[in-house]
Design goal:
With about 325 residues, the protein is α+β, with helices and mostly antiparallel strands. It has helices at about 1-5, 15-30, 40-45, 55-65, 65-70, 75-85, 110-120, 135-145, 180-185, 185-190, 230-240, 265-270, 275-280, and strands at about 100-105, 125-130, 150-155, 155-160, 165-170, 195-200, 205-215, 220, 225, 250-255, 270-275, 295-300, 305-310, 320-325.
Length: about 325
């Protein structure tokens, strides 16, 4: 009688089945999640990691011998594979015309000269640095001078190049805004400027290169996932890129967000991710000790990404990212 009273495999584990369906719907409809309190951005930042819930739920389903939960898990598995299944194939191609590297060197870096030596070893043709302090600036300039005869530093971001630079200028990403920001003199705002634009003279013609370090994000109980500064910077940067007359453009920088984040829709609608196009794996770059997200980006327009990779740790809390591009 007890055996006959037990629920069948299709009736066991209704909670597990419901959780599996909710997981699948969350990943499938992530773009529809409200961004109030930055919830949508937070979900999209760590969306690949939601796949880890699948083996957890599968273990529960097998333990409960729930056929309904196992079948329900087909939804999140299918959605995850549709979103990220292609990530694990190597999309790179041999050779490139130009190698670019971007690195947030960390304002608290205790060994700028050592970081610079590591970056020289990457043999990049164009090297972008973010979070350069006034104290560390001369150390980077000295350590990189021999390998990179051309360079510019605009506030806390800089570009070192083996090829000549021209038409260099800071880019206003609305770090300061409103009446108080407008009232600040240029020499004050320039000290903490976080974006620049320059032209690199290549053998294939001029290449517009942008270097940017967008505002930080914060997670706290009152405001949730606070992204106001970053989102404002991203919109301003997207406008600058849209107004760029050169059809060949590369954006290097710490955007403090993944390209899946809706905050970058205006950028990603006009530029492609080198990692998505020519990388192998997720290419996570932060934090350096245990990377969980790729917030350091190389985006391109008018050129072809041939390869994309993450470089070894340099002592910063970010990992450097590199890409090979061709015309």
């Amino acid at each position: 009688m007890r055996v006959g009273a037990r629920p069948g495999p299709w009736k066991r584990g209704p909670v597990l089945a419901a959780l599996a369906l909710l997981l699948g719907l969350l990943m499938l409809l992530h773009a529809r999640i409200t961004d109030r309190g930055g919830l949508g951005s937070l979900v999209e930042t760590f969306l690949p990691w939601f796949g880890l819930f699948v083996p957890v739920l599968l273990t529960g389903a097998l333990w409960r011998r729930s056929a309904s939960a196992v079948v329900a898990l087909l939804l999140p598995v299918t959605v995850w594979l549709n979103l990220y299944g292609g990530v694990f194939s190597d999309k790179s191609h041999p050779g490139s015309d130009l190698t670019v590297v971007s690195h947030n060197v960390n304002a608290d870096n205790s060994d700028p000269a050592g970081t610079a030596r590591d970056l020289v070893a990457s043999k990049a043709d164009v090297l972008a640095l973010e979070e350069i302090t006034a104290q560390a600036k001369p150390l980077y300039e000295k350590a990189l001078a021999k390998a990179y005869p051309y360079h510019t530093v605009q506030g806390t971001v800089g570009l070192w190049s083996k090829l000549p630079l021209s038409d260099t200028r800071p880019v206003d990403t609305q770090i300061d805004y409103g009446p108080l920001g407008d009232a600040k003199p240029a020499e004050v705002t320039m000290a903490y400027n976080r974006a620049l634009r320059t032209t690199v003279a290549t053998d294939h013609g001029p290449l517009a290169v942008y270097v940017a370090h967008l505002g930080s994000v914060r997670v706290n109980p009152r405001t949730g996932f606070w992204t106001d500064s970053r989102d404002r910077n991203a919109q301003s940067l997207a406008k600058a890129v849209a107004a760029e007359p050169n059809e060949r453009v590369v954006l290097l920088g710490d955007l403090n967000g993944t390209v899946a984040d809706r905050a970058f829709a205006d950028l990603t609608s006009q530029m492609r991710s080198a990692q998505d196009e020519a990388g192998d794996g997720f290419g996570f770059s932060w934090p350096a000790r245990f990377p969980v997200a790729r917030i350091d980006q190389i985006l391109v327009r008018g050129v072809e990404p041939e390869s994309s990779w993450v470089l070894p740790s340099t002592g910063s809390d970010h990992l450097p990212v590199g890409a090979g591009i061709s015309w």
